Known about the structure:
Blueprint: E1 3-9, H1 29-37, E2 46-50, H2 53-61, E3 65-68, H3 76-84, E4 92-95, H4 105-117, E5 121-129, H5 133-137, E6 143-146, E7 152-156, E8 180-189, H6 190-196, H7 203-208, H8 212-217, E9 221-226, H9 237-259
Parallel strand pairs: 1-2, 1-4, 2-3, 5-9
Antiparallel strand pairs: 4-8, 5-8, 6-7
Amino acid sequence: MKSIIIIPARYASTRLPQKLLLCETGKPLLQHTYESALTATLPDSVIVACDHNKIFHAVQQFGGHVRMTDPNAPSGTDRIAEVAADLDDVDIVVNVQGDEPEIAGSAIDLAVQMLIDSPDAVMSTLATPIRNRQQLEDAACVKVVFDASYRALYFSRSVIPHPRGGIREEHFTQSPPLFYQHMGLYAYRRDFLLRLSRLPQSGLETTESLEQLRVLHHGYSLMVGVVEDATVGIDTPEDYRKFVERYHAAEAVSSSHRQV
């Protein structure tokens, strides 16, 4: 099955203006994400779906593939669907967010493989164990529960599952893990992606403000792959500063190894 990665890239950003073009490392943030996506082995290629000439030209400058999309597209999903509509030979489309510079190629491959192995599923996504109470109770941390076959049962901003006797510290160390954080990487079957925006929203989706609940509401199967570590998205100046520090530290280690 042929798969492709599409990175939706918006120029505007509320908390960190023009974040995808920040380049304190010597490369735009978007380039880091692009290069990380290229480390996946199953997808055939990577395309950036952008909404602004500055991003378009930045991607061209670092040698990436880029398509201009409707600046008024309501979501990243609509943006990647616009590009996927012209890719008749593609079976699976992976949505990698542009502000995920440290996304692992193996995580992308897992999302693709889950659709290859589950012919009845239309989407796949990823999750990672939650190991502390603060993260579990944070509404910004989306939780997911899934069945024995790794099919998603529900996503929520609330604590799920909710222990009847209360949350205890041992819940965070048990094996297998009890709580999982949903990670915002998706793989879609192309034909379903092109239908998704036409599916009516559900009350669950609007209540939780989680688009993936639309898929479950309409009875489709959504697979969940488990990875050990969460990818850190760049949403704030502090997030970016820490990424730059990690990047320079890794470069220093790499340089010392080359010298040896």
